[in-house]
Amino acid sequence: MSLEAGNIVTGTVTGITNFGAFVKLPEGETGLVHISEVADTYVKDINNFLKVDQEVKVKVISVDEKGKIGLSIRQANPKPKPKDKPRSKPKKATGPSFEDKLSKFLKDSDERQQILKRSVESKRGGRGA
């Protein structure tokens, strides 16, 4: 079986660096699991996730023309399904409806304009204009 992108295989961690881990694959080839492909969470220290000689399931994500193999532990493991959030029931309208609020606003607005108009007219009328 030749290695192709998308294959999932089991390998053994042969070395750990600050940027990832080297994994020996069943066919004798070695690939690199970049630190960003180790886990779904942030990995500050790869040694907290992997140890030398540990068996890991990896997904082949790339094989370039020079023979470098890019691997991913994160993509080889199925992601847990997010829990469904309970749907909230639609809230029942409590209090006046939008139309009621709008008609009250227009009525109050008309009353205020009339009061303002009377006030302006009385001030003009008081000066003898």
UniProtKB/TrEMBL annotation:
One GO process term, biological-process aspect: translation
Highest taxon of source: Bacteria
Residue ranges annotated for the S1 motif domain, each copy included: 6-74
Region (Disordered): 71-104
A Pfam entry, by short name: S1
Listed SUPFAM superfamilies: Nucleic acid-binding proteins
Gene Ontology CC entries for this record: cytoplasm
CDD domains attached to this UniProt entry: S1_RPS1_repeat_hs4
A molecular-function term among this protein's GO annotations: structural constituent of ribosome
Protein name as catalogued: S1 domain-containing RNA-binding protein
